[in-house]
Specification:
The complex is a heterodimer.
Chain A lengths: L2 H16 L8 E6 L5 H16 L3 E6 L4 H13 L4 E4 L8 H9 L4 E4 L13 E4 L2 H16 L4 E7 L5 H15 L4 E8 L4 H14 L8 E4 L2 H13 L9 E6 L2 H8 L5 E4 L5 H14 L6 E3 L4 E3 L4 H8 L5
Parallel strand pairs in A: 1-2, 1-3, 3-4, 4-5, 5-11, 6-7, 6-8, 8-9, 9-10
Antiparallel strand pairs in A: 10-12
Helix pairs in contact in A: 3-4, 5-6, 7-8, 9-11
Chain B lengths: L3 H23 L7 E3 L2 E3 L1 H24 L7 H16 L4 H25 L4 H20 L4 E2 L3 H8 L1 E2 L2 E2 H18 L3 H10 L1 H6 L4 H27 L1 E2 L8 H11 L11 H21 L6 H16 L1 H17 L1
Antiparallel strand pairs in B: 1-2, 3-6, 4-5
Helix pairs in contact in B: 1-12, 2-7, 2-10, 2-11, 2-12, 3-4, 3-5, 3-10, 4-5, 4-10, 6-10, 8-10, 11-12, 12-13
Classes of the chains: A alpha/beta, B mainly alpha.
């Protein structure tokens, strides 16, 4: 958590506490993991926006990547008798006892972005997460549609070896590509989700594939690696987005900048708006008693140069990515 | 010295040649070079260019290790200095940016040196403090996001070229020559080795060991700062979470591969840089080979083990018996 954001968060919290809660206004406690990545910061700011939009009093507790802080935060939300609790769990196990306390207090819990161990399924109302296998599929389908029937050699920049997101995004993409005989993943190597490694790995791909002449498309498990790969292609005298198609996942602001410059083709959004669907589910549950499904899947939206990337960049750059 | 160097560097040079040969086998175009927009382009250039950060770190690290110290904070110092450079790049000229980044590296080195030499903390603990805190400082500077810049001067430091060679390589080479000239052109190198060999005896003999220790940590900080600026310039942005992450371990490995003992007392700058090149030649080879990434670390571990075994006195003892027999006969 940056100091500035911390001050802003506590100031917002103080302000919200000071406001008189008018009748029917929901108060929701949100135990956020912390500020591990730009996406996480964006999720926090979008959550605040969505709550304001629905006139919900959202109290955000920053756990600084520690489970004990999250448990403390949940207990304090229970003590304050909030209407619902949002939890972005830092790990998948060890939640049973605190979630039971919430259940006994009749406070519904909604998981955001990450799931927890299946043993606790009855302990929460619903989980709002993205399907990372589906994200890979959306990327693969776009590529298949764009390439058509031409033969296409694809190189893949994987995320950190062993990370579930990386495994899933690879699986989804492989499934989509396997349906088309003309598409072939010729090289796949990890870029550790970082720009620097993405660039280094792309440099080696270009050398190994005849100076890049044999590569028709790059698929990266996140946009940051793609930003690095785009630099590597440019330095090798290639035109990313034209000579070599690009498709990556996350939809961070900088990939839209590359799209404006014509150097990136497509990205699949991992939406930072997990709170919106969660707020709607809680409101329906409180008002009409509608029990939501156990899993609310967020949309994995595809963005290309046709979607006015400049406008998206402008709208995203202030979110803290 | 000149007579000593080839014998001391034999294992490292042999290892480098073997790894280069393996790279040629897994990737037939490994030695291809061509000019692309006025700069050399090819896998060999990638090895030199990508090896630069670790080579720079190892230049400082080898001096620290020669005093029987260790600096775990260099990766975090890279992140701090890269973040400073990136935040200033678009509003200030290159001299200001460089002065601020290198100044920060110097301050970090002073802090480490102060903890070790003045407060007498164990180096591994003293530098661990900055290793952990430093990344947090870098994140505060960048506010947790990747700070990008477009200042052509700073970008040139990462992506430009001089006579076809990438600028980072030229910088690393200049730093090697400069460091070598300072420590080997004077008695400084000897005094550093004396400090590491036996600090108390050296102190009694009139060596300012405290000043020596502070000086090597400061130099290590400056080298790390330079590596951080180059890493940021390379991707046109400062990534506080990942810049220089775990590179302190690669730098220590480079020094060890270069035959410098972790117990201090003697060192070789050239061989430490050669160690960094061995690591990078291996890394680039792995990337070119097309093996699944799950094997990366395994291959790396096996190669490092082989290189270290090559240097082991016990093992070379067996091989050495034959040579010694020959010598006694002659």
């Amino acid at each position: 958590m940056t100091l500035k954001a911390l001050f802003a968060a506590s100031a917002t919290a103080a302000l919200l506490l000071a406001l008189p809660a008018h009748a029917g206004q929901l108060t929701i406690g949100f135990s956020q993991i912390g500020s591990e990545s730009g996406w996480r910061a964006a999720e926090t700011s979008v959550s605040k926006q969505e709550a304001t939009k629905r006139q919900v009093n959202l109290k955000i507790a920053d756990a600084q990547q520690k489970q004990e802080n999250q448990i403390k935060a949940i207990r304090s939300f229970i003590a304050q008798n909030v209407d619902a609790i949002f939890l972005a769990p830092v790990v998948s196990t060890g939640w049973d006892s605190v979630l039971k306390e919430a259940k006994e207090a009749k406070i519904p819990v909604v998981l955001l972005d990450r799931d927890i161990d299946p043993s606790g399924k009855e302990l929460y109302l619903t989980a709002v997460t993205s399907d990372s296998v589906h994200e890979g599929e959306v990327a693969g389908d776009w590529l298949a549609k764009t390439v058509g029937t031409k033969p296409c050699n694809i190189v893949e920049l994987q995320g950190t070896v062993g990370a579930s997101v990386a495994t899933n995004r690879k699986k989804g993409f492989d499934t989509a590509v396997a349906k088309h005989a003309n598409l072939k993943v010729v090289r796949s190597q990890t870029g550790d989700f970082t720009r620097a490694k993405g660039k280094e790995v792309m440099e080696s791909f270009i050398k190994a594939e005849g100076g890049g002449k044999n590569i028709c498309a790059v698929y990266a498990h996140n946009d940051d690696m793609m930003v690095g790969a785009i630099q590597a292609m440019k330095e090798a005298g290639l035109k990313p987005g034209k000579d070599i198609l690009t498709v990556s996942i996350d939809a961070v602001p900088d990939i839209f900048k590359a799209m404006v410059a014509g150097e990136a083709n497509a990205t699949v959004e991992l939406t930072p708006n997990m709170a919106g669907p969660a707020l709607d589910a809680v409101a329906a549950f409180k008002d009409k008693g509608t029990v939501p499904p156990k899993w609310i899947q967020t949309e994995s939206k595809l963005y290309t140069a046709a979607d006015d990337p400049q406008k998206i960049y402008d709208s995203k750059k202030g979110l803290g990515y | 010295m000149t007579a000593l160097l080839p014998r001391r560097g034999f294992a490292q040079i042999l290892a480098l040649i073997v790894i280069l040969a393996v790279d040629r086998v897994v990737s037939p175009q490994f030695f291809d070079l061509r000019l692309q927009d006025g700069r050399l382009f090819g896998s060999l250039i990638d090895v030199l260019n990508r090896g630069t950060p670790v080579a720079l770190l190892s230049l400082g690290m080898v001096l620290v290790i020669a005093t029987r110290g260790i600096d775990l904070s260099v990766g975090a110092v890279m992140a701090i200095c890269g973040a400073i450079a990136a935040s200033l790049a678009d509003t200030h000229g290159l001299p200001v940016v460089l002065a601020a980044a290198l100044g920060a590296g110097l301050v970090c080195g002073l802090w480490n040196g102060f903890l070790v030499a003045v407060l007498g903390m164990q180096p591994i603990v003293a530098t661990l403090i900055l290793m952990v805190a430093g990344r947090g400082i870098a994140q505060l500077i960048t506010e947790g996001r990747i700070v990008t810049f477009s200042s052509p001067d700073l970008v040139w430091l990462g992506n430009g070229s001089v006579l076809g060679l990438p600028v980072p390589v030229v910088i690393a080479l200049s730093m090697l020559i400069l460091t070598g000239a300072v420590v080997r052109g004077s008695a400084l190198g000897l005094l550093i080795e004396a400090t590491g060999g036996n600090a108390r005896a050296s102190e009694l003999a009139g060596v300012g060991t405290r000043a020596m220790i502070i000086a090597v940590y400061v130099w290590c900080g400056i080298c790390a700062a330079l590596a951080g600026v180059i890493a940021a310039a390379d991707i046109m942005g400062a990534d506080a979470n990942n810049a220089g992450l775990w590179l302190e371990l690669d730098a220590i490995l480079a020094v060890v591969i270069g035959g410098t003992s972790l117990f201090g007392g003697r060192f070789s700058l050239v061989l430490a840089v050669l160690g960094a090149l061995i690591i990078q030649t291996m890394n680039t080879g792995i990337l070119l080979s097309g093996y699944p990434p799950e094997f990366n670390l395994l291959v790396k571990a096996v190669v490092v083990l082989a290189v270290l075994l090559l240097q082991s006195p016990k093992l070379s003892g067996f091989a050495g018996i034959a040579t010694r027999l020959k010598r006694t006969k002659a």
